[in-house]
């Protein structure tokens, strides 16, 4: 079988990770085109990844390059339109989260995806491809911890990434803390429980970084959720983890509990020094989810090769965004929000 020819749009913080993986780590795929607004990023693609064709216009890339698929890693506000254009062009689509920034545009995008059943669509909820999350999911599905009662999730970006986040938020709307960060945890809540979120109460506080006020972003947010079967979820999201990249999940059931990355460990090394016993922590998303980013794209390519659809669907993207938007509304109005 010929290699799947992929074009990527966006070569920023995450785009570079996906571009590198497609060109080096995904059997059966090759990166033949790249699109970015930044000339230095396009030079990187040409010189370091040997990408044949580079573009500053997405429409030109999908029109002129002989592609089988696109990988969309542009800012969140562009996803829905870029998914639609690629689908209409007959291409398979991998898109980063979120699917879009409002429900109408996501629903319109899903209509177009549904008209193309022979094209693969996959959304970038990479945590589902992380070994620890996969292991935990199997345990939950096998009934090891009984019926779920509470899910607690932390998703906190490192303070060291704040400067680049502020740049990102200034350049383009991130969708806010819940659509940008908690969306992964919302997906985990739906994935582990198999249930939808019915109502949310969320709040937020900015304390350490006034620059986040200027870009209308939250530094820390908390959301309390009730699922359709009365299971409860508590989400903490933030941009100010001094110690590194803190992603942690706890599942409490009637027969036991599971914790995933209770401490966001970098590896198995413990350092004994003048500070005592030190466990280094993971510092950023490319480090913590390095393998998961590779596995999700392997799955995307395998879906294309085997003519099947991915487990992570556009509907998952829609449902997660509905919850994220409800969280933001709850913060803005100080009300509990019911999700229809
Ligand atoms: P970034 O700001 O670092 O990079 C954005 C890239 O998109 C740049 O290469 C820029 O030139 C390009 N771009 C901007 N507007 C464009 C346009 N109109 N046409 C073509 N290219 C354009 O952003 P990032 O942090 O890499 O985030 C990109 C996306 O990935 C976001 O949607 C974000 O939510 C998502 N993301 C997901 C995860 C995850 O954990 N799965 C982590 C980080 C980012």
From TrEMBL:
GO terms for biological process: NADPH regeneration. Residues 4-120 form the Gfo/Idh/MocA-like oxidoreductase N-terminal domain. Residues 133-259 form the GFO/IDH/MocA-like oxidoreductase domain. Keywords: Oxidoreductase. One of its GO terms (molecular function) is nucleotide binding. One of its GO terms (cellular component) is cytoplasm. The keyword Oxidoreductase applies. InterPro entries: Gfo/Idh/MocA-like_OxRdtase_N, GFO_IDH_MocA-like_dom, Myo_inos_IolG, NAD(P)-bd_dom_sf. SUPFAM superfamilies: Glyceraldehyde-3-phosphate dehydrogenase-like, C-terminal domain (SSF55347), NAD(P)-binding Rossmann-fold domains (SSF51735). It holds the Pfam family GFO_IDH_MocA_C3. Belongs to the Gfo/Idh/MocA family. PANTHER family: BINDING ROSSMANN FOLD OXIDOREDUCTASE, PUTATIVE (AFU_ORTHOLOGUE AFUA_2G10240)-RELATED (PTHR42840:SF3), NAD(P)-BINDING ROSSMANN-FOLD SUPERFAMILY PROTEIN-RELATED (PTHR42840). This is Myo-inositol 2-dehydrogenase / D-chiro-inositol 1-dehydrogenase. It comes from Garciella nitratireducens DSM 15102.
